[in-house]
Write a structure and sequence with these properties.
1 helix, 3-stranded antiparallel sheet, 70 residues, single chain
């Protein structure tokens, strides 16, 4: 299901650096700032910190390969 938005939306490409353990990671997709909130590319940021990303029935799943107990 999708909805149409009325009005306008202003987004700004952010020139932020992603640092992981003191090393800069280059993002192919830049962060975006909309109404003062910064949105990051989930897959790229997650993979940079060691997580795999999958999409399952509308849910974003992050997995670092660690066993889940309990």
């Amino acid at each position: 299901m999708s909805y149409a938005a009325s009005g306008s939306l202003t987004a700004t490409i952010a020139n932020y650096k992603l640092m992981v353990n003191g090393k800069e990671e280059n993002l192919k997709n830049k962060p975006v700032v909309i109404n003062g909130t910064t949105y990051l590319p989930v897959r790229e940021v997650s993979q940079a910190v060691g997580y795999n990303v999958t999409l399952n029935k509308g849910n974003i799943m992050l997995d670092n390969g660690a066993a889940v107990i309990g």
